[in-house]
Every structure is written in structure tokens, then in C-alpha cells.
Amino acid sequence: MAAPPFAEASQLAVNILSAQSLLSAFGVVGVGVVLFAETGLLIGFFLPGDSLLFTAGLLGTGTADRGVQLSLGPLLIAAAVGALAGAQWGYLLGRKAGGALLARSHSPRLHDGAARAEQLLERYGYAKAIVLARFVPVVRTVLNPLAGALGVPARTFTVWQMAGGLVWSLGLTLAGYGLGSSIPSIDTYLLPVIALIVIVSLIPLAAEVYRSRKAKAASG
């Protein structure tokens, strides 16, 4: 007997805030698309980039009992391409549209992220800010068009967004893969582990803030 229409609809539904749901629906291709949207389009600021990368790496081990298995090689390529192409696209949009992109948004969270991104650029300079922004949700979305709007040199932006993008995308993916390979049934504790990964990803930014304050205090 055929399944009721509502049952089919529930099976097709995708929770875009859930890394597991996105990976179940779109697999490796979804990783690249989501990272491109999160880093290149302002409307993607709410997407789960950190947890998506880590969960994808975990599923790449083939040991997680989650109904989804991903190949590590294609996964790493999709993650890197999505992260790098998205950031570059966001920068180009910022160069062409300027601050109008942010002005059209009514999201307080997005505007708060823009303010934090501008503070990073002012405090640490282009190179450090572009790399650090990769590890801060929302900030990694708005810094790219903001850098374009503020006239950050294209070569400088490209070099450092590639450096930060590769460390972020490949690092989190391989972290998930490494834990999944070394710890049996790690997927049972997926949510707590993802929360830990997100916290760890904020350490570089926290360390820079600490060093900056310490340097200011030392200089009087």
C-alpha cells in the first residue's frame, strides 16, 4: 500500500539548522552548497557551518550509525571549495554593492555580527581579522562583504581568506573524522561533542582579545 502523502512530505522535509538533516538530504554536495551560502550570502548567516563540518567528518569514517556515510576525499574537496568560493563571492558582492547589502537587512544578529567584524578589522588588521573571522559564527558571513565594501585589497583578502578557509574547513572536518575513527560509538554523544568543537573554535579569537588587552595594559 502506498504511503500517505503527508508521510512522504515528512520524509522529504529538511531542517536547515540541523547538520544531520542537511547531510542526510544532500550528502557531500550539501556541504559545499551550505558553506558557500554561509560564507558568501548574507542570508546564510544562520546556517550550521561548524557543526556541519564536524558531523560530516564523523560520518566520513563509515563507523557512525546514522544512516549516512560520506567519502572523506570528496568531502574535503567540497568543504574547501564551498568555503573558499563563498568567501570570495561575498567579497566581490561587497565591492560592488558596498554597505547597501547590510543596510537592507533588519536582523539584529546580522548587524551585531557586522559590528564585531568591523572591530576585528580595526583591531587586528586585515590578515589576522580575515583568518580569525572564519572561526566565529555570523562574523565569518558578514566580514567578507564588509571587507569588499571597506576596500580591503583583493590580493590581501584572497590570500588570507584562503589560509583561514582551509584551516577552518579542513581542520573541523578532519577533527570529526579523527574522533570518529579513534572513539567507538562517538556519534552517540554527537551533540555534546559538536558544542565542544564550537567552543574550541572560538579559542583563537579569545586568545587574540586577551593578548590585545594585555598589550594595552602593559603600554599604560
TrEMBL record:
Its main location: membrane. It is a multi-pass membrane protein. It is found in: Cell membrane. The chain crosses the membrane at residues 21-47, 67-87, 165-183, 189-210. The keyword Cell division does not apply. InterPro entries: DedA-like, VTT_dom. Keywords: Cell membrane, Membrane, Transmembrane, Transmembrane helix. Residues 48-177 form the VTT domain. Belongs to the DedA family. This is DedA family protein.
